[in-house]
């Protein structure tokens, strides 16, 4: 099978960007330190997390796997964010 890096790159950018923002947002909202410290740490973590997700998306064998795994990651993080918000009462 032909490996289509363009489709993997599009998947990594389109689905990896909200995934990185959601992961850092979860850390900012529910991190271990004070709110201001968590937000600052999340801001500094955003670029390395996003780069890691981009690399992870490009490391799949097929573009379809990248789309499926990054989409599942986005769905899982969104569900976790909604569940933590509901459970925290905010």
Separation of the first and last Cα atoms: 48 Å
Helicity range:
over 70%
Overall SS class: mainly alpha
The run of helices and strands is HHH
Describe the sheet with the most strands: none
Protein name: Iron uptake protein
Transmembrane segments: 9-30, 36-59, 66-87
Keywords: Membrane, Transmembrane, Transmembrane helix
General description of the model:
The chain is mainly alpha-helical. The chain has one domain (5-88). It has three helices and no strands. It has helices at 5-30, 35-58, 63-88. Helix 1 (5-30) packs antiparallel against helix 2 (35-58), helix 1 (5-30) packs parallel to helix 3 and helix 2 (35-58) packs antiparallel against helix 3. The radius of gyration is 15 Å and the shape is elongated. The N and C termini lie far apart (48 Å).
Question: What is shown here, in short?
Answer:
The protein is mainly alpha-helical and 90 residues long. Helix content is 84%, strand content 0%.
